[in-house]
Amino acid sequence: MKGLKPWYRRGSALQGFASPVFNPMRVIEGYLVYPTPGMNPVVIQSSTLGNAYLFLDIVGAGGGGGGGASGTVTSSSGNGNGGNGGADGGRLIVMTQGPLPSGTQFIPAFGGPGGQGNPGPSTGCGNGGNDPGPSGNTQVVLTNGTVSITVPGGSPAPVPTAPTGQCAGGSGGPGGSAVFTYLSSTSIFSTIQLPPRISSFAIQNAGVGGAGVGSEYFDPTNSTPIFISNPLGTIPSGGSVGTSGSANGKNGGSATQNVPSGAIPLRGSGSGGGGGLNLSTGPAAAGGNGGPGGPGPIIVLVIE
Fold this sequence. Notes:
Layout: E1 27-33, E2 42-43, E3 53-59, E4 91-97, E5 105-107, E6 138-141, E7 147-151, E8 178-182, E9 188-194, E10 216-218, E11 264-266, E12 298-303
Parallel strand pairs: 6-8
Antiparallel strand pairs: 1-12, 2-5, 3-4, 3-12, 4-9, 5-6, 7-8, 10-11
């Protein structure tokens, strides 16, 4: 595809799929469309990839965690509520056939940045900031497409009511959707719809930020047969509550924090920031920032 350098060229087997004619399938080359600041959607300038079989992995970006509330200026012990963890993105894998018509758009998305922890007012307390969610949905849009397959992103957990005299943490951000828009004449051989994963600990607990969902990832240098990604299975922990020696709440963890060096992160959500500690004199201790959500890239494999 013009303007994109393939990151992947080798004849490895593609596990998990049979070809339309039930012969073993080989990966010829691959393209990665990754969200980059200042980059507009990637638009195909001329019809390309002929009648090749295409394996599209469309990954919705994840929401960031909510910011932690500040502590309260009071002589009573306690702390502000932590922020909730964000929601995971949807993921859609489509096996189709070229060509990709001129004007086709590949639109990746950034994960939510994480809500801001409250900086701490001179009196009372302040609520944590909400995460706004991803920059948008991750989309592959074929020119003149009128039909869509969508895997919706997740919804954040509800923010619990703060105890009397304390302030509430911020909401985690929603997950982004994965969308493939195509023509009624487009050949689609199979799809896999992977719904957003859910953290059982997304709601803050006694001032500790709610947990996120760890990013999936794939390694472009992998020399073994691949199915695009390896689920990580780790949970970004929420930020801890401030302590007497360090009264500000701690920042939440990033969705991508445990992705190996050199691997490409896929979706995942950030955890919430911790609440600030109560102090007898102002200003109040600040809440921690929510951790950022994982990105929503697009992977294109050309197979035979």
